[in-house]
Structure formats: C-alpha cells, structure tokens
Write a structure and sequence with these properties.
It comes from Azoarcus indigens. By secondary structure, this protein is α+β, with helices and mostly antiparallel strands. Helix content is 31%, strand content 10%. The longest helix is centred in the last third of the chain and has 11 residues.
Length: 130
C-alpha cells in the first residue's frame, strides 16, 4: 500500500499520478503528488516503478503502516528497492537489460521441460497450441 511521498526528492513529474490504476494519488496546487485515497491502493507498485527519483514508498502490506520513518527506509535501502529489482535504474532508456536475452528461452522452455514436452506432443499430433 502506498505509504510515503518524500517531498524533497519529488520532481513533480506526476508520473505516479498518471500510472495509478485506482486514482489513489492526486496533485496539489503546486504540482506535488499526495495520497488522496490510500484505501483504494492495490499495491501494484506502478507508482514506485515509474518514480525515477525514488520519491515514494509502497509497502507490500495491504493495510496502512502508521509510524513509518522515511530516514530509516532510506537507510535500509527500501526506498527505490522495487525499481532496482526491476532493473529500471541500471540502464539508459533504449538500452536492453542484460537479462532480457533469457526471455525467449524461458518462453520456449528448455529441452525436456514440461513446456517443451507439451509442444513436442502437440506438434506430433498436428496441433499447434501456443
């Protein structure tokens, strides 16, 4: 659930407001986002993923966590952790993630995997099921 917006880090781009599927965030008169409807947050983490300056924190819990300390979250490395886990802060726009090359192999299934065996049987029976 969205918990904190760190005003000193926020660049007021409002990407978080635009990507929120439940309209949890709004912008004040100065263009600073704020949590308008915390109870509507579905913890999808889109706002955190799209926040390039890591100015907000979404907790994995589906209920409010009173008393969170922004300084402690920063010290623990939890601010921006989701973006780092996605690899969004490790490359420039347009560059491919080094892990992206594994995607076709995962989708196909390595030889002998259940996905590979299923496809082999489907092709043998004249059925293309993918």
């Amino acid at each position: 659930m969205i918990e904190l917006i760190l005003e000193p880090r926020c660049v007021r781009c409002l990407a978080c407001v635009r990507v929120c599927p439940n309209d949890v965030l709004e912008a004040d008169g100065d263009g600073l986002p704020y949590v308008a409807r915390q109870q509507d947050c579905c913890s999808c983490f889109l706002c955190e993923a799209y926040c390039a300056p890591d100015a907000l924190y979404v907790a994995p819990e589906a209920y409010p966590l009173p008393g969170l300390d922004a300084a402690q979250l920063l010290a623990d490395g939890r601010i921006g952790a989701f973006r780092r886990a996605l690899g969004w802060d490790q490359r420039k726009p347009g560059e491919l993630d080094a892990r992206a090359g594994a995607a076709p192999a995962i989708q196909r299934g390595h030889p002998g995997s259940p996905q590979d065996l299923h496809r082999s049987e489907s092709y043998a029976n004249g059925i293309n099921r993918h």
